[in-house]
Amino acid sequence: METKISKFNYGILDVDGTLVDNRKLYRWLLAKILPLGFSVNGTDLYLPTGGLPLPSWAKFLQPIPGLTRFVLVAERGILKLADLLDLSRPKLFEGTEEVLSQLSQKGIKLFATSGSKTQKATRRLEKAGILSFFTAMAGSEMPKREHIPYFASQVDLPLQDFAKQAFLISDGPVDLHLAVRYGVYPVGVAQTLEPSLLLKQGAEEIVSNLGELLQ
After folding, report:
1. Which of 78, 131, 137, 138 could bond to 125 as cystine, CB 3.0-4.6 Å?
2. Short-list 190, 199, 184, 185, CA closest to 171
3. Is 213 helix (H, G, I), strand (E, B) or coil?
4. Coil, strand, or helix at residue 55?
5. Can you name the residues that pair with 110 across neighbouring β-strands?
6. Helix (H) or strand (E) holding 72
7. How far apart (Å, rounded) are the C-alpha atoms in residues 68 and 162?
8. Strands across the sheet containing 205-207
9. Is pLDDT above 70 for 13?
10. What are the extents of the domains in the chain?
11. 185 and 167 in contact (C-beta within 8 Å)?
């Protein structure tokens, strides 16, 4: 398919559910709760989750003592269970390695973003044989909202300049929402959620898998 991503200098790719077919329980939960009216628009502002959407009224609960800790512990519990159910050797989605190879050959510098700990996500990419394609990785040690600024710092560019030259590919609504906020070109992969939900978060392009980006 025709895509605009080849014109950019930098690419940010989500690991879980975009490159690697893992965390199926967590992704199943996302697919179930988002159509019920949960929103990502305030998630990264009010509670620093690793990508779990919250109801829009979550902002009013922020001052409650212990709420942030409760939400983060609950999310970590869900992610830990999802990780336990995963295969020991990560399975890549169709076309993943080919797309990464093509982007690298075009001179596009790639970054990986994940809701997992950096060490765990790095090991996942290494086992899948695609770690060498990436310049840097950002994991759950920092809130999702800090990942894009971190990548800009890795190439010594002001955030605004970096954003104009970057695209983001993700199956997750929080990633897409943040890309739009920072001015990064957002591409949604409909491997977890319906295309309509990804478009609602600002995706400029929708593909059913990474293989559709091959040119």
Report:
1. 131
2. 190
3. helix
4. coil
5. 11, 134
6. helix 67-85
7. 31
8. 134-138, 109-113, 10-14, 166-170, 185-189, 205-207
9. yes
10. 5-22+90-213, 25-85
11. yes
> Residue 68 corresponds to which tokens in the numbers above?
């942030």
Distances (CA, A) of 204 to 70, 170, 187, 201: 34, 12, 6, 9
Kindly report whether the global pTM for this prediction surpasses the value 0.85: no
Position 215 pLDDT exceeds 70: no
Q: Which long-range contacts (CB under 8 A, 24 or more apart) does 141-145 make?
A: 141/117, 143/44, 143/48, 144/44, 144/48, 144/49, 144/50, 144/51, 144/113, 144/115, 144/174, 144/175, 144/178, 145/44, 145/45, 145/48, 145/178
192 versus 87: which is more confidently predicted? 192
Task: Report the DSSP pairing between strands 166-170 and 10-14.
Answer: parallel
Tokens of 21: 């077919």
**For 133, how many CA atoms within 13 A lie in the half-sphere containing its CB?**
26
Q: Angle, to 10 degrees, between the axis of helix 173-182 and the axis of helix 147-154? A: 60
Token representation of residue 139 = 């994991």
What are the backbone dihedrals phi and psi of residue 89, each rounded to the nearest 5 degrees, phi first?
A: -105, 115
Encoded tokens for 204: 């400029």
What is the architecture of the domain spanning 5-22+90-213? 3-Layer(aba) Sandwich (3.40)
Nearest Cα neighbor of 86 from 15, 29, 25 is 25
